[in-house]
Amino acid sequence: MQGIGTVLKDERLLQVLIIGLLVVGCWLVLAPFFTAIVFSAVVGISTWPAYEWLLRRLHGRIELASLLACAAVLLLAVAPLSLLLMSLVDGLRLAARLLEPVIAPGPAPVPAWIETLPLVGAELSRWWQQVTSGQTPAGELL
Predict the structure, then answer these.
(1) Which of 36, 73, 135, 141 could potentially form a cystine with 130 if both were Cys, beta carbons 3.0 to 4.6 Å apart?
(2) Residue scoring higher pLDDT (117 or 32)
(3) 0.85 cut: is pTM over it?
(4) What is the CA radius of gyration of the chain?
């Protein structure tokens, strides 16, 4: 027969295990968002003095100060990113134009040295020909 002390220890152990599982579960759920959470904390902490200054200038109108502060942070973060994205798109268009003559002839033929590889040469050569001729799902992408 178990004493009351053993039952309490078992319950305590079960509680600690459940809390541990909850902590691990929360960690796994939040892990992809840690970068965004830290970035948001940095932005919030670094802009707080400006928000308080704006709040004083607007005579304590919290809603208006919050709206203006959010708009300012949005403009300061989104405007440079959108310009960067437009520049990236232009660069990708230029790269596609420059690579078009290289890609247009199609896939390269099987190099002669592939067939001379011991054990795998013939199989690798046959696979290369199947892929480049479109006889496999990967070849259809080419």
Answers:
(1) 135
(2) 32
(3) no
(4) 31
